[in-house]
Amino acid sequence: MAETARRVYADSAATTRLLPEVLEAMLPYLKDVFGNPSSLHDWGAQAQEAVEQARGQVAALIGGRPEEILFTSCGTESNNFAIKGLARAGQERGKHIVISAVEHFSVLHSARALEKMGFELSVVPVDRHGWVDPDSVARHLREDTILVSVMHANGEVGTIEPIKEIAQVVKGKSKAVFHTDAVATAGTIPVDVAELGVDALSLAANQFYGPKGAAALWLKRGVRIIPYLDGGVQEGGRRAGTENVPAIVGMGVAAEIARRELATRMKKLTPLRRRLIDGVLSRVEHSILTGHPENRLPGNASFCIKFIEGESMLMLLNSRGVAVSSGSACTSRALKASHVLSAMGIPAEVAQSSLLFSLGIDNTEADIDYILGVLPPIVDRLRQMSPLWAKFVKERR
Amino acid sequence: MAETARRVYADSAATTRLLPEVLEAMLPYLKDVFGNPSSLHDWGAQAQEAVEQARGQVAALIGGRPEEILFTSCGTESNNFAIKGLARAGQERGKHIVISAVEHFSVLHSARALEKMGFELSVVPVDRHGWVDPDSVARHLREDTILVSVMHANGEVGTIEPIKEIAQVVKGKSKAVFHTDAVATAGTIPVDVAELGVDALSLAANQFYGPKGAAALWLKRGVRIIPYLDGGVQEGGRRAGTENVPAIVGMGVAAEIARRELATRMKKLTPLRRRLIDGVLSRVEHSILTGHPENRLPGNASFCIKFIEGESMLMLLNSRGVAVSSGSACTSRALKASHVLSAMGIPAEVAQSSLLFSLGIDNTEADIDYILGVLPPIVDRLRQMSPLWAKFVKERR
Amino acid sequence: MPIYSEKVMEHFMNPRNVGEIPDADGVGEVGNPICGDMMTFYIKVKDNRLEDVKFKTFGCGAAIAVSSMVSEMAKGKTLDEGMMISNRDVADELGGLPKNKWHCSNLGAEALHKAIEDYRSKQAREA
Amino acid sequence: MPIYSEKVMEHFMNPRNVGEIPDADGVGEVGNPICGDMMTFYIKVKDNRLEDVKFKTFGCGAAIAVSSMVSEMAKGKTLDEGMMISNRDVADELGGLPKNKWHCSNLGAEALHKAIEDYRSKQAREA
Ligand SMILES: Cc1ncc(COP(=O)(O)O)c(C=O)c1O
Ligand SMILES: Cc1ncc(COP(=O)(O)O)c(C=O)c1O
Q1: Which of A40, A243, A245 best probes binding to C when mutated, by most C CB atoms within 10 angstroms?
Q2: Which CATH class is domain D6-121?
Q3: Which of A36, C29, C91, C115 is geometrically suited to a Cys-Cys bond with C41, CB 3.0 to 4.6 A?
C-alpha cells in the first residue's frame, strides 16, 4: 500500500467499516457464548436470546415486528429469497413479475432465473436520473402480476425511488406482492415499512456499520413465501442453517445505533456530498453528475468524467490513498458497463468514465478537499493520454 | 443459569466454540481491514488477499485445490447449493437422484424440493447401525441417475459411511456426480477428496472450532453446477453476495489448525468416548448405544435410554450443567422423532429416549466422570415417573 | 429452545403428585399420537371429590409440568369441577406454553378426564 | 481486484511514450468491442526501423500498461520484427495479466500492427 498524504475511504456503498461498539457487542458471542440457538440447553438458550434481541432491534429500525424479520447471510440472499420465494408462493395466482431496470443484480438475475423457469418478466424503464415513474409501473401491471420489486435506492447513482407511490399503484391496481430492496437505504435514510406500504424488504448490516454475514428479509405478517434454504426449522422453518449468532447480534446493535444516529448522520453527510458534487462539477470540465440531482442518498456523489476510463481513474486515486468505485466495463469482472447507467440512457462510451464516491460517517471536509485536490490532475493526466480527448479537443477548435 | 458443580459442554455436534487464535486472526478484518473483496482499491485488495489465503487453507484441509473451494454461509447452504445446483446442471442427462435415508435435512429437503420440480428421488436404506451398504447404493443406480449424495458421517449417531467404496460403485456403474456432506467430518477425522473419490463435498467451519457464518462447497474442477445465489460475480460467478471476510478468514485458520491437530484430537477424543460409552452402558440399565459400535466419529456417544423421554433428560442434565442433545420428537421443533433413528429401525417409542453426547477438544476425563455421576440418578428419577417403566417392571416380575 | 416459563420449570424440576395409587378409584391413560408422550392419571374419590390425584408421565418438560399442574389443580375439586379443567386453564396456570408444546397441555386434562370417566363408568356398572 | 503484477503497475503509473507524433509515418487505431477501450499508435519509421513509437489510450490500467509495454518493445525494432510482437509476448513481458484483462493485451499489439500496415500501405501507394 502506497504512503499517501491522506487515506480517504469514499466507497461506503461497497461496504462500511464495523463500529467498535458493535464489535464489542459481538465479542461475547465470538468467545464464551458460542451455543447453537437451536440447542435446548443453557448454551443454546443464551444464543437464542441474543438472536431474538437482535430481531427486535432490526425490526425497530424499519418499523416492523420482530417476528417479521428473517435473518439471512447477505443482501444477495435476502433478494434471492424474496424474489424466488415470493414468486413461487404466488405462482398459482399468476406468473408475471415486474422489476425496474436499475435493480441490483441479485434481484435482476433472480428474476431472470425465474424467467427461465417459466415466469414472465417485465422490466420498467427509468428516466435519465434513474428514477422509476409510478405511472410507468402501473402500465406494466397485469391481471396475473404476482410480484413487483423496485429498489428503495440505487447505491450506484444514489437515486431514491418513490416507493410509497409505487406501492399505492401496485396495491391499487393489482394483487401483486410488493418487495423493495432497501440494502442501500436501511440504516442510511428513514425506512418505515408501514409508511412505504411494502410487503417485503431486504436490508444488510454491512451497509450501516454492522458486520458482513448478517442481513435480513422483512416479510409482512401473513405474506406467504417458499423457503429458499431447505433444511432444519430455524427462523420459523423459513430459513434453515445454523444462525450466524455474532453477526446477527452485531446487526442488531448496528441497527439500534443507526436508528438513534440516522438524523445526525444525514445532517453530516448531505453538506459533504454537496461540497464534493459542487467541487467536482466546477473543477473538472466535462464532468456530469449521474443520478437524481436532489433526491439521492446523502453520501452518494456519482459522476461521469468524460473521455477517460473509470478503472484507470480509480487506480490513480487509489495511488493517492482515495478509495472509490466505478461502473465502467473494465472495473466489472463481467466486462460490461453498468446496466444502471445504460438504463438511464447514458452512452456506453460515457458510462466507461463512471466514477462513484460514496461517503460515510468517517469522512470530513478535509477528505473532500483532499479529493478535490487530487482528482483534477489525475483527470488531466488521463485525458492527456486519451485519444477521445484529443479528438474532442481537435474538433472543438 | 443454575450454579452447578461443573459445566460440561457435550454438544459439539451442534456447534463448537471458536478457538481464541482463530478469533485473533479474524479481528483485523472486524476492525481496520473492512474492505469489500470486490473493490478494486487497496481496501478491497487486502480483503481479497485474505479470502484467497483462506481458500488455500480450506483446500489444504481436504486435499483440494484452492480454486475448487466456494465459500458459503453455512453447511445448509453448501448442501442446498450442491444438491440443487448439481441436479439442475445435470438435468439434460437425466432426472434421477439417489441419497441415503440418514442425510441431514439440508440434503433430504433439498432433494424433496427437487422431487416437487419433477426430479425422481431414490432413498437408500441403512442397516441398524445407520450404515449405508455400497451394494445397496448400486442397486438404486439407474441409467438416468445424475446425482448421488451420501453423507460422510452422521452427527447424530456418529456412524462413518464407506464413502470411498460408494464412490467406486457410483463411478463404476453410472455417470452420476457424487456429493458427500462432510459437515460432521471435515476437521474432525481425515477427509481427502481424492482418496474419497468424490466430485463435491460440503464442510462448515463451526464444526471444527471455526466461526459460524462460514462454510464451503468443494467442487472438483470441471464439474458443472448451476449457481444458487444469483447476483454479482463473487466466487468466480458461482456464489454471489458480499463475502463474509472475517468468518472466511477464521475458517481458513481453523482449517489450518485442524489439519495440524487432527491426529492429536482424535487420539484424545476416542478414549474419552469409550469411557463414556462403557460407563453409560454399564451404569444405566436398559440403555443402548445407537450408531456403529466401532466405526464412528471420535467424540460421538449416542444412546437410547429406554422408558424415558429425551427432552426431560436433556433438561435435567442441563440443570446439572451438562449440555447434550436428543433426537426425540419433543426436542425437535417439528415434533417428529429423528428420521435417522427411524431409518435404523429403532421403534418410535425407543427413539423418544434418544440422548446424544458429542465430545470436543475441551472435554476431560473428569467431565466424563461427572456425566457418569449425574446421569444415573436423573434416569432413575424420570423412570420413577414413567408409566412405561412401571409397566415394564410389572411385566418383568 | 422452547422458552418455558418459570412456573413450568418449577413444576418440571419439582413435580407434585408423582406416583401411582394402587387402589385407585379411577385410572386414565392417554398417549399422544403426535410426539409419543404418555400419561396415566390415578384418582381417589371421596364424597364426589378428588381426594387424591397422582400421575405417571413419559414425556418432555412440558408434559411433566402439565401433569403436575393438572394434579394440583384437580386435587380437592368435585368431579364435575375436575371435568371442567380445560387445556387452556392448565396452560394459563403455567404462565403459558410454547406453541409447539400445546399438544402436551391437551394431554394432561384429557388424562384426568379419562380417570374421572373411568371412575364414573365403574360406579355405573356397580350400581 | 484484478491483481496486477508489479510490472503492470509500474508501466501504468509511469507509462512510456505517451503522446502523438504529428507527422507520423503510420497511425493505427483500434477499439475494443468488449469493453470499449481505444488505442491509437503513432510510428515514425527510418531505415525500415521503428524509430519512434507513441500512443494514446482510453482504457483501464491494463490497457495503459499494455500500450506502454508495446511501445517500448517496438521501439528500435524492424517493421517485420514489430509485426511479430504478439499479444502473448506483451502479456509475458508484463509478468502476466489477469484473465479478464487478456482482451486488453490483444489490443496493444493490434494497434501497433495496424500502424505498421498503415505505413506500408501508404508506401505502396506512393511507390
Ligand atoms: C451432517 C450435517 N450436514 C449439514 C449440517 C447443516 O449445517 P448448518 O447448520 O451449518 O447449516 C449439519 C449441522 O449440524 C450436519 O451435521
Ligand atoms: C441495492 C443493493 N442490493 C443488494 C446488494 C447485495 O448485497 P450483498 O453484497 O450484501 O449480497 C447490494 C450491494 O451493495 C446493493 O447495493
Answers
A1: A40
A2: alpha beta
A3: C115
